[in-house]
Structure formats: C-alpha cells, structure tokens
Amino acid sequence: MGCRSCEIACAVEHSTSKELAKAILEKPRPRPRIRVLRVGPFSVPMRCQHCIEAPCARICPTRAISRTPEGFVIVNPIKCIGCAMCVLVCPFGHPVVDDELRTMVKCDFCRDRVSKGLPPACVEACPTGALLFGTVEEVTKYVARRRAREIIESKRVELEGLVVYTPPSEERREEGEAPSLQRVLEPYERVSWVR
Question: For residue 170, what pLDDT is reported?
C-alpha cells in the first residue's frame, strides 16, 4: 500500500541509536536499505536480492562486497571507496552511494537480527504482510496457507447464527438435488489422460 514503514524501520535499524526519535537527529543521517517505488497504481518494495552470482561483488575493485556464510551479500564500509561500479552493474538498481559516508550502502538483511532469530526490520514493520522472510520452503508454505485461508473465508456465509461455506461453483443446486455423473465430469472434459 506504499506506507513506507519498511523504509523507516530499516533506517532506524541501521542507525547508531536504534530509536526513531534519536535516529532522525543523527549525523550522518541513517539511510534505508529498502526503497518503495510507485509504478502506476502499485507500490513495489525494492531491496537487494542477494544474488548467488552477485555482479556487484564480482566487479568491486577493493573486494569490499562479499557473501556471508548465511548467504547474504554485504559491504565492508572500511574497504569501500565509493566508486559506484556496483551501482552500474546491479540489475535491480539497488546499491546507492551515500554522499555523506562516501561509501555504498545496501541491504544486509539485518544479519544481526537474523542471527538472533528475528526477521529483518522491514519484514517485521510491514503492516500488510507484503514482505516475507525465510527459506523458499517456509515462504511457500506460509503463502499457500494464507491463500487457502482467503479462499475459505471468501466462501464463508453466516446464516441465522450458523457458519456455512458455499461451494466454489457459481451454480447452486436445488435443495436435495444430487449432482449427475455428467455434471461431475464436465470440468474434466478437456483433460486428456492419454497421449
């Protein structure tokens, strides 16, 4: 929905104080490592994809960008010279050279939080659940469960204090009418089980 809660949480997490009221007064001012972009009517959160074959790490002349054992692509600000080569090669347009720090800043997946079993700050702050964190299997299971719940709830109707779930078909059978075999097979008419 474009609330930018993720941006605020990220900037605060990467501040010295880790408190919103104090972070806005810090010098240099903390920068978010995630950006919410408007694309027509949509809001798209953009952050580092932590590529397996990270072009930013391959091109960095000082080897300031590396991969952690957990698989996060991070930057060492002491080694970074702010040359912006990483900015040029990133297919997602993610790294940004901070003019005040004179180094590149990018998402580090809040690795300190993750090592404590917490989600990244942006994920925790997202009020709609648009951002998720976990393994592919964990995220897939979560999304499938959430979608199944939405489907079930969309079919939920309350009638005189009773909860009834309507069938997925738009057609309603007359009360007491049993479905015919033909009606049961209709959805499968176009399916060919044999080549």
Answer: 47
